[in-house]
Write a structure and sequence with these properties.
By secondary structure, the chain is of the alpha/beta class. 35% of the residues lie in helices and 23% in strands. The termini are close together. The structure holds 2-deoxy-2-amino glucitol-6-phosphate.
């Protein structure tokens, strides 16, 4: 998604803006720009299509010592990726950068006859609207911003400067994150805390409907109705090493490889294997409230949705009379689904900023349903709007493809399910196998990574020229297959779809030919034999089959077998997903693609 940075202080603004935008590159973008101000109205506006390196080429010829400015990386929504559509956008003496979508921009544009539009963007309408209040001097910059935002429908995170006042930045947000970094004699702006790391550990997370006038040594927050806000200064938990590659070639590989540690962080203080108990404080539900739960709605998008599906399969195994519905946020938010009163909604989101998931959360809250966040990004919008929650604590996930977050989201939701089961008096003997295995998972993941990475890399190279693939699994291996297919398609651009193995003969089997390879997730267990029969159906049609399994006796003549050396049984799909992650990663690197920033995608989809 787009990225915003801003600086006002005594240091060189261009340096911070460029380094800050580089920290936000992982969010996905297709153009970038910065503007810095000096006294007497001197402005340096630089914009470029494509990567930040193109912007740096322009910067090399336009070095300034200015100490105030704003910058932006744009992921195109209105108007193609181009220099003309890149932010900052200008109207008169005002320059603005914007994340989000102004839904009524066409209507507003019609009222701005005096402005000569140079782009196709909704953002330029916003800066022209602000200028319509600012240009004749009737309103200060912050008041002109307030007047304009009162007319806006849609979402925004903005930073605005004026060449007339090269010592102040106005910021505002509604539906798109905006963070104010509190420095010593300087103030920094960012849409994502990672841009602030190493500059300050103190930040103010603006809330929806708030506007702030920031200077190098003052920050004044108020609502759009001019009510003063006593903003809370919070600590930024991220550190530099968490947002750097640490010797890995790509963030995706780093984040796959750090899953033993990141899952351990998720479990810290929450799992008591000795006494077969889990202790989840975050949801904030009393024992009585937990006992009353009859229905779980699990909401997410993409990987978060798949994590919810898999967690749901587990939770129903050990919680009596609870129905579980896992839904896609972008669908559910528009349905008129009735949610029973004795329900709880789990809102799953790594970034905590996904627009559809956030909108779903707000719709569900209107029905008076308790909402519990399963979120990674501390202080994110979803994390602050849910009634309670469990941070998964995996640290920043930089690569667009979500990996370590999935593993921890599944386990965190299972721990929430165990918390319900404990409150409902489910026998410890039933819960103990789940708790024991969860406790062992960090080590099991480490063993899988250590023993199989090389083999997976070799196998992936053999399949890199295929254009199509099918992922297959039954029961808990089915949602895991969906996640594996998503991982492959989103980084390697190979067409990959997952099917419940039992569904194959109801249609998808017609696909099987030499254009496809089949990735089969084959856990030991009650459905093992049925799945083996399904593999035979695929082989009989000339399928190019790869099987990953923890079974010792699998011996069908498939092209490749990935044997998982583990005594984990219940959560073996988590280990299978680690294999899928590595398979997708190595395949993509073998194809020479940009694995951390796949085309067309963004890390956090803060627009609908
Ligand atoms: C997963 O690899 C994708 N990057 C994408 O599907 C992602 O999971 C989805 O956009 C949800 O993001 P969130 O967890 O930040 O809400």
């Amino acid at each position: 998604m787009c990225g915003i940075v801003g600086y006002v202080g005594d240091k060189n603004a261009q340096d911070f803006l460029i380094s800050g935008l580089k920290r936000l590159e992982y969010r996905g973008y297709d153009s970038a720009g910065i503007v810095t101000l000096a006294d007497k109205g001197d402005v340096t506006l630089l914009r470029a299509k494509g990567k930040i390196a193109n912007l740096e080429e322009k910067l090399a010829k336009n070095k300034r010592k200015d100490s105030i400015g704003v910058g932006h990386t744009r992921w195109a929504t209105h108007g193609e990726p181009s220099e003309a559509n890149a932010h900052p956008h200008r109207a008169g003496d005002i320059y603005l950068v914007h994340n989000g979508i102004i839904e009524n921009y066409k209507e507003l544009k019609g009222t701005l006859k005096g402005h000569e539009f140079k782009s196709e963007t909704d953002t330029e309408v916003l800066v022209a609207l602000i200028n319509s209040f600012y240009k004749d001097g009737k309103y200060s910059l912050v008041d002109a911003v307030v007047q304009a935002l009162k007319l806006v429908k849609g979402t925004y995170g903005i930073a605005v400067v004026s060449s007339k006042k090269p010592d102040e930045i106005v910021v505002a947000r509604s539906g798109s994150p905006l963070i104010i970094g509190v420095g010593n004699g300087e103030t920094l702006i960012a849409s994502d805390a990672s841009a602030l790391v190493g500059h300050t550990k103190r930040a103010i997370y603006l809330n929806d409907g708030e506007v702030a006038l920031v200077k190098k040594d003052s920050i004044e927050v108020k609502t759009l109705n001019a009510e003063p806000v006593s903003a809370k200064v919070e600590e930024i938990e991220t550190n530099l090493s968490a947002i750097q590659k640490g010797g890995f070639e790509h963030f995706m590989l780093k984040e796959i490889m750090e899953q033993p540690d990141s899952l351990a962080e998720t479990l810290r203080g929450r799992i008591d294997a000795k006494n077969a108990r889990v202790h989840l404080g975050g949801p904030g539900l009393s024992e009585a409230e937990l006992r009353k739960i009859k229905h779980l709605v699990i909401v997410g998008c993409g990987t978060a949705y798949h994590a919810g599906l898999l967690a749901g399969y587990y939770i129903e195994q050990f919680t009596p009379e609870i129905t579980i519905e896992t839904v896609i946020a972008s669908e559910y938010r528009y349905r008129s689904a009735y949610i029973p009163k004795d329900s709880v909604a789990l809102i799953v989101s790594q970034s905590g900023e996904t627009a559809d998931t956030l909108a779903c959360l707000r719709e569900i809250k209107k029905q008076g349903i308790k909402t519990i966040g399963i979120v990674n990004a501390i202080g994110s919008t979803i994390a602050r709007e849910v009634d309670g929650g469990t941070y998964v604590h995996v640290g920043p996930e930089i690569s667009v493809a979500s990996t370590k977050a999935f593993t921890s989201q599944v386990i965190a939701m299972v721990m929430f399910g165990l918390t319900i089961a404990q409150a409902k008096g489910v026998k410890p003997g039933i819960l103990k196998p789940y708790i024991d295995e969860i406790d062992k998972m960090p080590k099991a993941i480490e063993e899988t990574l250590d023993s199989l990475s090389k083999k997976i890399k070799e196998i992936s190279k053999k399949y890199k020229d295929y254009e199509h693939s099918i992922y297959l699994g039954r029961d808990i291996a089915y949602p895991t297959s969906m996640e594996g297919a998503l991982k492959l398609k989103e980084v390697s651009y190979i067409d990959a779809n997952a099917y419940a193995f039992g569904e194959l003969k109801h249609g998808p089997l017609a696909l099987v030919d030499d254009r496809f390879f089949e990735m089969v997730l084959l856990p030991k267990g009650a459905l093992y034999d049925k799945a083996v029969s399904n593999i035979q159906e695929v082989l009989a049609r000339g399928g190019h089959v790869i099987v990953m399994t923890n079974a010792d006796n699998f011996d069908l003549p498939v092209e490749n077998i990935i044997k998982i050396p583990t005594d984990i049984e219940i959560f073996v799909p988590i280990l299978m997903n680690i294999i899928s992650q590595l398979f997708a990663y190595y395949m993509t690197v073998a194809k020479g693609l940009n694995v951390d920033q796949p085309r067309n995608l963004a890390k956090s989809v803060t627009v609908e």
